[in-house]
Specification:
single chain, 295 residues, alpha/beta, Rossmann fold, 2 domains, six-stranded parallel β-sheet, three-stranded parallel β-sheet, 10 helices, 41% helix, binds guanine
Length: 295
């Protein structure tokens, strides 16, 4: 049986339309236009392209976007000073420092400088700490893992008692995704480069979240029949048959795995559009906090 395809593009478009309506409502009721500030350091082409996509999505949803750029050798204090200025700027309700930062910069210090109330990436150590703790709620949930959870909900997944396997332990995706799954009472295994018998661990999963950054690593015989597979990977691979000479693939061997899984996200067209939709949602939330006097 072929898996149900979880259409992230369509789900994200619906969410973006709902957010755009709420943005209009906020402007007419409170005279406040939600605003997102992006901070990009260096010339990483992938980061430049992600930031451009985020800014464009903001504009389409009626959210103001303020782009800030630094050269790759920007000193720590200049980046932190900008973040502090943005914290104090009433037009800015969300601050996004695009990662990775150049190696000479202290990422933790910069992310810690972001106001908790504008931390739309959810990367502030306090937000991550709250996400990790029982009975605590972060002000913002990191966008990609949040998008993963929404896709799982849309697919009608039963979280309670499910075996969930997260492939990858990054700060941005794997670890927060594992925490969100635990909050929903799934039993979670986090796999990584030192895991013994990766295929065997994956085969136990009712919910499999792949976030390792290895093109098409998850094969059909790694997947339990009927499992729900969420592919966070986005990898550029050479493809002489494509007119561009390359194409994008996920961490999952989609064509083979869709014959085994119960439901699966494509990549592109799955998690990627959801990350941006969740960023817009978090920026709107930042503006709501400001209107409520908590910004
Ligand atoms: N780099 C890769 N993903 C992300 C993200 O979601 N937010 C930021 N700020 N940087 C990233």
């Amino acid at each position: 049986m072929t898996a149900t395809i979880i259409d992230g593009t369509a789900i994200a478009a619906r969410l973006r339309a709902e957010i755009a309506d709420k943005v209009k409502q906020m402007e007419s009721e409170h005279g406040v236009r939600p605003g997102l500030a992006t901070v990009l350091v260096g010339e990483n082409p992938a980061s430049q392209s992600y930031v451009r996509m985020k800014q464009k999505a903001c504009e389409k949803a009626g959210i103001a976007s303020f782009g800030h750029r630094f050269p790759a050798d920007a000193p720590q204090d200049e980046v932190e000073t900008l973040v502090k200025e943005l914290n104090a700027d009433p037009q800015v309700h969300g601050i996004l420092v695009q990662l990775p930062l150049p190696k000479h910069l202290d990422e933790e210090a910069i992310l810690s400088a972001v106001s908790l109330h504008k931390d739309v990436d959810g990367f502030h150590p306090v937000n991550i700490g709250r996400l990790a703790m029982k009975g605590r709620d972060p002000l913002f949930i990191p966008c990609t893992p949040h998008g993963v959870m929404v896709l799982l909900e849309e697919a009608g997944v039963e979280f309670e008692g499910a075996q969930a396997v997260v492939l990858g332990r990054s700060n941005i995706v794997g670890m927060p995704a594992a925490m969100l799954l635990i909050h929903r009472n799934a039993t979670v295994t986090v796999c990584h480069s030192r895991t013994k018998d990766l295929p065997g661990e994956c085969r136990k999963a009712d919910i499999l979240v792949a976030a390792v950054g290895h093109p098409q690593m998850v094969k059909a015989d790694w997947v339990k029949p009927g499992a729900v597979v969420i592919d966070v990977g986005s990898n550029k691979v050479d493809d002489p048959t494509d007119e561009r000479g390359y194409r994008w693939v996920g961490d999952v061997d989609f064509e083979a795995v869709k014959e085994v899984a119960g439901a699966i996200t494509p990549s592109p067209g799955g998690v990627g559009p959801m990350t941006i939709a969740m960023l817009l949602k978090n920026t709107l939330r930042g503006a709501e906090l400001a209107v409520a006097g908590q910004g």
